[in-house]
């Protein structure tokens, strides 16, 4: 498993919703080895404050050595990151963690909620690339409002996947939760669910899957200091009573291996 | 075990001694911040390290604290990992073989809830191939004495030191807690009890609160503060201790660069440990080695030892 | 002296009590970081402050330390001002008239090298118009006891507290040093000795080195660390002390914003002091008052007192 | 004395030598009340690191509400400041300290060394404005090399002052120290010297002035935390054995009131 600490150059900055940004980074080594569901750790500032790197899922990579992240401004680190300029250099560490275990023989149901959409594009691309035909597969995207998701739709559509949207305010697609669509949709037999999003959403998805006996992989979050298994800070209770470390054993897990408290 | 340290006569001599252990350069990784070294193998040249100090090992495996275990603070971080580790037996069978293969001295950080536990871990580590030293973490609460840390009472600190010394032949470093009124009292006590070196500092005790939820940011409520924020406290303690003990002092606390490391050496440290910086820059410790080498060259120092305690006070 | 605190019934009640002293809101300026208040009159509305705490005053004028006296560190600064001040008599004649005219409670921070000095300063301040409280700084070295700080020994700390209490009618706050093994022991000792409130923390002892010259960055070699870097330590000590004493605790250390202040109050502080932040943003203390008010409104708190110690632990 | 904490907008950035920059700030309140020799305290970063403001002399002001500083990159704070962008907002506190006491009845000799040239332009302008005729006055500028000084010459020349230059490397003007020019020049009788520069230069200037009984004002530096008399950090030994505080009693002093150790 190769990992790199790379000085990436900011190639492009896209501002979607008020607080949602997509960065394209020139970052050839990491881009070449990243797998869907893996993440990178980024230094947002140059000084000693903020001190720690921040984790972001790999949103997509290009064969030209580029890597994208899609993020929301929620605090100091992301606020600084939202202010980068084109050609600026930033330090990126990755790829980190265990990504999705894509079952190319099963129809794939990809469910992304909020910023959890970020890794889903990469997974969708990989899925379609490996399967060639992904007409049987389905992408469900949930967001608070239209703005948070519509700019990403083209990228998904281009892959030829079926796409269903839910927004909390009804400004696009189903008015309500993405889990509601999941429950009301007839899923292709033998499918596998891959999901990333808010904890409550993933808990809901995993409950639904469990009830229908559908394999479900979830990508979860945790506070992280190192992202590489060195600090043991990113612990999360596992089903077997032990702690699992999200940066090393995750971020993608079989839903049934985790404890869901919500 | 003897390491053959290759010396290029054109390069400055970076070797320093920690008791009977000679290390190639004064840079070690701090316990709990470098995993078991393997985590960094893709990202740096592990062979450049003076020594590797591994995550604190207890007699039995420990699960550690519930999350959240870490939170960032201004120029620092709090951790309450809860000393999660696999226990000394699994450490020896699962982790030591790889570490031994590195050909870099491995120092095992140990911790216990009682004197007997410290002794027993030491006994089990005796003779394990690749173990070049023991670092005794005395910041843990002593369960027998109502949870007061061994490290805040000079008598208890000395007792732990003496107990470990009796059971091992490798150099014993004692790692002090900075949460005390007078660090020199503890330092002298462990020196008298036979410590071969004194590591300082461990983390300061701190706390953070999440205002929106009105909850402690850590499940454990309090945690250990590390990173650049604590460097001034660490430097002061190294300075104070180095003046009153004759064993080597190992400086720890907020070291990110060769400049930081050299400042600790001027204050009296024989060597340093890199902690939190490993999380931000996995190459930090290697870069510190390179920077110290470059400094020694630029300043035409025959040996890096010549700057230890070299602070100008006149 | 009684201050008439105007209360707008539409605004949340920000008043808190420090012993017999009621202040309009829980925000004070920390000693040594706000001069004698006049320095800030052009830059903020001094009348918005809960109280002003002035630079530490000794019995006789002190010249202070040679320069350099300050140095920046990661998210903090070290100072070794050396307690420069004009002495209690000139303070009363030169500084108090202006302060008295502010109609804001003035708390005088005092320090001495001996019990007798603390007593004598207190005697001279008795009855001086405008002096609403005394804050006893016990971080200074006791010259009679070989230079050990009063603040690190519970018996000495209690003795100073008792001595000052005996000579004054205004509330006495005792400001503790964080450089101790167990802050609760000192806190309980000064509470038992009659302290009306406990201020904490004073600065952590630290040191910085200038690598190019190989000299200490401060002429005094060591200094006091303040600023955001120390906030986690301060918050932890406030939390620990507030649980074991029944007098108000005043939180100090790295507070820059209303959020910071509110975190200290959740941890158990009745009020807070703004220190180093005044240097960076002269309006810092006023902004903290505004922010606390806005928070109280947004959270529909009838009184800010309802959040004191309100940390959720379940 | 009015002082302001102002959010200034960066109007212009000039890069002179490799590490020398001049910033023009829209900062109307401070610009309107600043006097030559006074200084401002600037927050270089947005986070908590670097924590403290940094002091800079007022280089010039304009009636249009602009204020300039001229600075050299020597450490972290100035490095960040050198990277500001036009239209960026930065927090400026000032005007601070006691400036020069200009004697309009005496010929003025202005001596600036290195970055000590910064306040001299403002003083020269004020001098010429108040006196109308400043043909009798003299400006001596010293620098390490040409680049450090040549970009400022036009601004001085425009005022109609006599100008003499010294550079350490001889790349412009006298090859050597500015104090050497001072000693070899016949000064107008009854003149006053105003100077700012490296400590050794000012010590030299003050020695020469003392020997010839010429009044000499110096603008000195000190580390500062607050810049406004609140921290007592900026102490400097005075002739009378006490400490003076550079931010409040200075930065401009009568040379004879200070202790010169060099
Ligand atoms: C494996 C992994 C992958 C991630 N991928 C993405 C991604 O692709 N896009 C993206 O936008 N984010 C992603 N995140 C979350 C992202 O790391 C955080 O939003 C970011 O670290 C916040 O940093 P900050 O400095 O802005 O906020 P901080 O200042 O650290 O925190 C500010 C506030 O935000 C809250 N906060 C902290 N982390 C999160 C979080 N994860 N979600 C919501 N609130 C939070 C804090 O509790 C605090 O109240 C991922 C996290 C992990 C662990
Ligand atoms: C009243 C006053 C007016 C000033 N006017 C100007 C001006 O007009 N233009 C200008 O360029 N500078 C001026 N300075 C100096 C300026 O404030 C410093 O250069 C600046 O604070 C350095 O900040 P930094 O963060 O870049 O360096 P730091 O990181 O703080 O320091 C880096 C290194 O530079 C050294 N250093 C710190 N201060 C100085 C200094 N004053 N001179 C040289 N080395 C220093 C430090 O010792 C350290 O080794 C003035 C200072 C004062 C007190
Ligand atoms: C996440 C984490 C885990 C740590 N675990 C240990 C440990 O197991 N044993 C120990 O002696 N010190 C432990 N420490 C303390 C460090 O070894 C070091 O003393 C401290 O972090 C100060 O150095 P720094 O500022 O460079 O990080 C830990 C520190 C961190 C941040
Ligand atoms: C420059 C400076 C001078 C100080 N002088 C005093 C003093 O005279 N008396 C005192 O009790 N505390 C003094 N302090 C400590 C502060 O009052 C405060 O306790 C400490 O700085 C921590 O708060 P902060 O992090 O908000 O600055 C001083 C602090 C600074 C930075
Ligand atoms: S983030 Fe450090 S071990 Fe996972
Ligand atoms: S810089 Fe604070 S008093 Fe001068």
- What hetero molecules are bound to the protein chains? flavin-adenine dinucleotide, flavin mononucleotide, FE2/S2 (inorganic) cluster
CATH H-level superfamily of the largest domain in chain A: Nucleotide-binding domain of ferredoxin-NADP reductase (FNR) module
Count up the helices of chain B: 8
Helix residue percentage of chain A: 10-25%
Kindly identify the CATH topology of the largest domain in chain A: Rossmann fold
What is the architecture of chain B at the second tier of CATH? Answer: Alpha-Beta Barrel
List the uncertain runs of chain B.
none
Look at the helices and sheets of chain B and give the structural class: alpha/beta
Structural class of chain A: alpha/beta
Task: Write up this protein.
The complex is a heterotetramer, with 2 copies of chain A (262 residues) and 2 copies of chain B (314 residues). By secondary structure, chain A is of the alpha/beta class. Chain A folds into 2 domains: 4-96, Translation factors (Elongation Factor Tu (Ef-tu), domain 3), CATH 2.40.30.10; 108-257, 3-Layer(aba) Sandwich (Rossmann fold). Chain A has 6 helices and 16 strands. Chain A has helices at 28-33, 76-81, 117-131, 150-157, 178-184, 199-212; strands at 4-15, 20-26, 39-42, 54-57, 60-61, 66-72, 89-96, 108-113, 138-143, 162-167, 174-175, 192-196, 216-219, 235-237, 243-245, 252-254. In chain A, a hairpin with a 5-residue loop joins strand 14 (235-237) and strand 15. In chain A, helix 5 (178-184) runs parallel beside helix 6. The mean pLDDT of chain A is 93. By secondary structure, chain B is of the alpha/beta class. Chain B has one domain (16-64, 82-204, 226-307): Alpha-Beta Barrel (TIM Barrel). In chain B, 28% of the residues lie in helices and 21% in strands. Chain B has 8 helices and 16 strands. Chain B has helices at residues 88-101, 115-125, 154-166, 183-192, 231-242, 258-266, 277-280, 284-298, and strands at 16-18, 21-23, 27-29, 51-57, 70-73, 76-79, 106-110, 131-137, 172-175, 197-200, 204-207, 209-210, 215-216, 222-226, 249-252, 269-274. Chain B has an 8-stranded parallel beta barrel, surrounded by 7 helices. A 4-stranded antiparallel beta sheet of chain B has the order 5-6-14-11, with no helix packed on it. In chain B, helix 6 links the parallel strand 15 and strand 16. In chain B, helix 2 runs parallel beside helix 3 (154-166) and helix 6 (258-266) packs across helix 8. Chain B is globular, with a radius of gyration of 18 Å. Chain B starts with 15 loop residues before the first strand and ends in a 16-residue tail after the last helix. The model of chain B has no long low-confidence stretch (mean pLDDT 94). The interface between C and D is medium-sized, with 36 and 32 residues. The structure holds flavin-adenine dinucleotide (FAD) (2 copies), flavin mononucleotide (FMN) (2 copies) and FE2/S2 (inorganic) cluster (FES) (2 copies).
């Amino acid at each position: 498993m190769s990992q790199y600490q790379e000085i990436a150059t900011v190639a492009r900055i896209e501002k979607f919703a008020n607080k949602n940004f997509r960065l394209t980074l020139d970052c050839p080594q990491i881009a070449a080895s990243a797998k869907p569901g893996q993440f990178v750790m980024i230094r947002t500032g140059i000084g000693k404050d903020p001190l720690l790197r921040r984790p972001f899922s790999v949103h997509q990579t290009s064969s030209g050595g580029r890597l994208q992240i899609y993020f929301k401004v929620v605090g100091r680190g992301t606020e600084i990151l939202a202010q980068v300029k084109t050609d600026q250099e930033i330090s990126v560490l990755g790829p980190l963690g265990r990504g999705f275990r894509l079952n190319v023989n099963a129809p794939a149901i990809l469910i992304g909620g909020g910023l959890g959409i970020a890794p889903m594009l990469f997974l969708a691309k990989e899925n379609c690339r490996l399967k060639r035909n992904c007409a049987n597969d389905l992408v469900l995207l949930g967001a608070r409002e239209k703005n948070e998701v519509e700019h990403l739709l083209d990228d998904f559509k281009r892959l030829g996947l079926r796409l269903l949207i839910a927004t909390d305010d009804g400004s696009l697609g189903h008015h309500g939760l993405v889990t509601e669509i999941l429950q009301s949709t007839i899923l292709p037999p033998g499918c596998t669910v891959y999901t990333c999003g808010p904890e409550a959403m993933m808990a809901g998805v995993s409950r639904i899957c469990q009830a229908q006996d559908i394999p479900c992989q979830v990508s979860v979050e945790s506070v992280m200091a190192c992202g590489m298994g060195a600090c043991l800070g990113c612990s999360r209770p596992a089903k077997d009573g032990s702690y699992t470390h999200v940066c090393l054993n995750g971020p993608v897990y079989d839903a049934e291996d985790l404890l869901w408290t919500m | 075990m003897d390491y053959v340290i290759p010396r290029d006569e054109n390069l400055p001599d970076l070797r320093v001694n920690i008791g009977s252990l000679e290390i190639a350069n004064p840079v070690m990784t701090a316990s709990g911040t470098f995993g078991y070294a393997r985590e960094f193998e893709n990202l740096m040249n592990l062979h450049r390290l003076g020594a590797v100090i591994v995550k604190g090992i207890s007699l039995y495996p420990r699960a550690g604290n519930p999350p959240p275990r870490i939170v960032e603070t201004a120029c620092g971080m709090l951790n309450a990992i809860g000393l999660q580790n696999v226990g000394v037996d699994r450490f020896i069978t699962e982790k030591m073989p790889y570490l031994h293969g590195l050909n870099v001295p491995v120092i095992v950080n140990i911790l216990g809830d009682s004197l007997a536990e410290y002794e027993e871990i030491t006994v089990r580590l005796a003779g394990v191939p690749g173990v070049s030293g023991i670092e005794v973490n005395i910041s843990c609460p002593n369960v027998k004495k109502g949870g007061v840390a061994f490290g805040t009472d000079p008598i208890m600190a000395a007792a732990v030191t003496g107990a470990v010394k009796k059971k091992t032949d490798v150099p014993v470093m004692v790692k002090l807690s900075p949460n005390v009124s007078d660090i020199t009292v503890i330092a002298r006590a462990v020196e008298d009890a036979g410590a071969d070196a004194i590591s300082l500092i461990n983390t300061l005790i701190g706390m953070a609160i999440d205002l929106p939820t009105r909850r402690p940011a850590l499940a454990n409520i309090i945690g250990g503060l590390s990173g650049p924020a604590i460097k001034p406290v660490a430097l002061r303690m190294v300075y104070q201790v180095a003046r009153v003990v004759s064993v080597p002092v190992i400086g720890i606390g907020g070291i990110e660069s060769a400049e930081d490391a050299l400042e600790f050496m001027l204050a009296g440290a024989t060597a340093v440990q890199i902690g939190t910086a490993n999380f931000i820059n996995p190459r930090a410790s290697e870069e510190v080695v390179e920077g110290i080498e470059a400094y020694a060259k630029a300043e035409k120092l025959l040996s890096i030892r010549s700057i230890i305690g070299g602070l100008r006070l006149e």
